[in-house]
Structures are given as structure tokens and as C-alpha cells.
Design goal:
The protein is mostly helical. Helix content is 37%, strand content 0%. The chain contains two helices and no strands. The chain has helices at residues 8-17, 34-37. The model has no long low-confidence stretch (mean pLDDT 82). Keywords: Lyase, Metal-binding. InterPro entries: CbiX-like, Sirohydro_Cobaltochel/CbiX. GO terms for molecular function: lyase activity; metal ion binding.
Length: 38
């Protein structure tokens, strides 16, 4: 479960709907938290 909106899935969908042919993902954490520990 994502902690913030939009979810990763929703964000990918919007990119594709707007014509994206390639999406580059770079994980970025402001501070250690739940996702960092998993």
C-alpha cells in the first residue's frame, strides 16, 4: 500500500495515457521509513 497519492500504478497509467513511450523510475527516500525497512 502506498502512503501518498498518486499510487505508483496510477502515476504509470497517467504517463501512458499522456503518450509516454518510456518511463524511468528512480527510488528516492527523504528519510528511512516503512518502505525503506521493507
Amino acid at each position: 500500500q502506498e502512503l501518498a497519492k498518486p499510487s505508483i500504478e496510477d502515476a504509470f497509467y497517467v504517463c501512458v495515457q499522456q503518450g509516454a513511450k518510456r518511463i524511468i523510475v528512480s527510488p528516492f527516500f527523504l528519510s528511512p521509513g516503512r518502505h525503506w525497512k521493507q
